[in-house]
Amino acid sequence: MTGRVNGIEALAGDMTRSRSARRWVVTAVVAAAVLALLTRPGAAHGGTLRLSGSSPQVPFWLVSLTGGGVIGVSFLFAALVTDHDLIRDVAATGRRLGAIPASLTGLARAAGVAGFVVVVAVGLVGPSTPTANLAVLAIWVGWWAGFTALTYLAGNAWPAINPWRTLAALLPAGDRRVSPRAATAISVGGLLALVYLEVLSPLSEDPVLLVAAVLAYSLATLAGAVVVGDGWFERVDPISRVFRLYGRIAPIQRTGDGLRLSLPGAELTRPPATDPRPGERAGSAADPQPAGGSSRADGGTAAARSQDRGAWWARREGDATFVVALLWVTTFDGLVSTAAWETFARAAVGVGVPAHALYVAVLLVGFGVFLVGYRLACRLSRRTGNSYVSVPEIRVRFAPSLLPIAAGYHLAHYLDYLLSLLPSLAVVATDPLSPPASLPVLTLPGWFGGVGLLAIVAGHVLAVAVAHAVAFETFTGRLQPIRSQYPFILVMVLYTTVSLWLVSQPTVEPPFV
Amino acid sequence: MTRTRATHDRPDARPDDRSVVRPDARPDGGGTPLDSGGREARRWGAPSTAVPPGTDPSRCPYCDRPFPSDRRRTLHLGDAHAAALTDEEAEAVAAVRDDEADDLFVYHLKVVAAIVLLLMGLAYVYAFVLS
């Protein structure tokens, strides 16, 4: 701390000499700042909903503007924290939780397969009313809303539960290599296709159709696993990739020696543990010797290593593209249920555009816009930071900071749906074949809409913090990392403003589906 | 300071050409030495770089990473190779850090001004809309 007279870390450092005491003081300051920020939109949105119905109401545009303002202010607060050691220490805070008992993993596998069998069976022979059918409720409420939320709020249990992975282990496993580019294309394409099906086809209304889709996916997944082996679930399967990436936000992470509890989002500031960078870490298993390495010449080993590095980078670039796709599909989900979209879609179909073509076009164009926007921000980041760090490097390192935004948006979109239908799911699960005629539904109070807005803002604030930590890890000194974040902050402010506007719109059924 | 330079300085170097990390560089690539005390030390390490053609970058004598200015390179020396510096380099690092601290102070004043303006602006808009 010698000779640095600036920033709150210096103040804290003077007060407390020991590193850990200083870390706690500043963690408290940062936490207080974040809390102070969070109370602002909360108050505003509480106001919106409390006052809705009576005359003075906070208009939607002001809610959006406030959201954008909160992102701006959280970036400005983050800019006051410029000590490399401190940022690293905060990201490294945590404790070991111990290993996972093998019996628990076995139980999770059995439960996953049992759940899969029950869903398929009940979907086919159960009641045809979707809200009384266990298959529909379990997939949409229990799994897509509930389990996904659990994954980013607690930890990723999908690799253990994944019934297809358990079933694939019983089949012969191939070892065909899939190029990272092809893997990315399949998983991004698969994700877009799944969301297209979710939004557009009557999958949530027809249990038999839903089971057909599940079986089609099972067939494709098991075929993929037979050809590629376990790598299919690690690199290609879109659903596993969604959970793997969402799981990286969570406070509980799997490490080499059991579970580890750390701050939410801290894992996003580091390269993935599950796929270490080849040859860059001393004393790790990260430098794989090619099979039968003894028979190879040295040149061959070097070439294989360089190929490993190339593949590692291609996988990280694939992750970056997939994260952008994930962010876009959560937005698309919200976009097509707004009144504004209904007006637009009716006008477009009115002039003769086929409805499904319109949805596909918007799904693809929107993904393109998001991808170009992100890549442009990375390019600009190199310029505003006046840095020689390569653009692909920036793309790969900053992409995980977008994940909390997607998670916040997912929570905003699904939390009230999840909570209100959870009682139905519980009742139907007790008697799936002849459920009672009237199912309990939780009626949420009016102020609950504010929780969704809060989730979006919290996701963005976490994203700002992650981007800040990544910038300090990537760029030199203390001013350049801040300047390099300008384009990302601009993009995030724009995105928050738009997504808050989307969420505060009245929800309608997507037209023409 | 007659260290040999690594030869991988093609301006179009792709991220996979990451061979600029030399044996005397820290295995995890950079940053101030941190006693990780058993905590997780998994880090991104030194980033790959791409130098615009036709420019003559200032290169780190330890890890050959290019920088647009000598000042930036000196800051990097303090960040990434603090343990290995010569006395002369350590002095340069201290001087440049001092300089940066002054700039950062002015920058932080601007940041505080921006925070005040932003919050007051929002409060003003709220007062206007809700009145």
Please explain how this structure is put together.
The complex is a heterodimer of chains A (513) and B (131). With 513 residues, chain A is mostly helical. Chain A has 2 domains: 83 residues, no CATH class; 376 residues, no CATH class. Chain A has 20 helices and 3 strands. Chain A has a 3-stranded antiparallel β-sheet, with no helix packed on it. Helix content of chain B is 42%, strand content 3%. Chain B is built from 2 helices and 2 strands; from the N terminus they run E-E-H-H. In chain B, strands 1-2 form a two-stranded antiparallel ribbon. Chain B is elongated and about 65 Å long. The N and C termini of chain B lie far apart (69 Å). Classes of the chains: A mainly alpha (513), B mainly alpha (131). At the A-B interface, helix 3, helix 4, helix 13, helix 16 and helix 18 of A face strand 2, helix 1 and helix 2 of B.
What keywords describe this structure?
heterodimer; A: 513 residues; three-stranded antiparallel beta sheet; disordered N terminus; B: 131 residues; mainly alpha; two-stranded antiparallel ribbon; 2 helices; 42% helix; elongated
* CA-atom Rg of chain A in angstroms: 24 Å
Number of helices of chain A: 20
Average pLDDT over all residues of chain A: 83
| Spatial order of the strands forming the largest sheet of chain B | 1-2
Give, in order, the helices and strands of chain B. EEHH
- Could you list the spans of chain A in which at least 5 consecutive residues all have pLDDT below 50? 1-19, 35-56, 281-297
What average pLDDT do the residues of chain B reach? 75
Biggest interface found = A-B, 61 and 56 residues
Overall structural domain count of chain A: 2
Structural class of chain B, by secondary structure, is mainly alpha
Distance between the termini of chain A: 62 Å
Task: Based on Cα principal axes, name the global outline of chain B.
Answer: elongated
Strand order of the largest sheet of chain A: 1-3-2
How do the strands and helices of this protein lay out in sequence?
The complex is a heterodimer of chains A (513) and B (131).
Chain A: H1 7-15, H2 19-51, H3 60-79, H4 84-92, E1 94-98, H5 102-125, H6 134-153, H7 158-161, H8 163-168, H9 180-200, H10 207-228, H11 231-236, H12 238-247, E2 252-255, E3 258-262, H13 298-335, H14 339-350, H15 355-384, H16 391-398, H17 403-430, H18 449-474, H19 480-484, H20 486-504
Antiparallel strand pairs in A: 1-3, 2-3
Helix pairs in contact in A: 1-2, 2-3, 2-18, 3-18, 3-20, 5-6, 5-10, 6-17, 9-12, 9-13, 13-15, 13-16, 13-17, 15-16, 15-20, 17-18, 18-20
Chain B: E1 58-59, E2 66-67, H1 70-80, H2 87-130
Antiparallel strand pairs in B: 1-2
Helix pairs in contact in B: 1-2
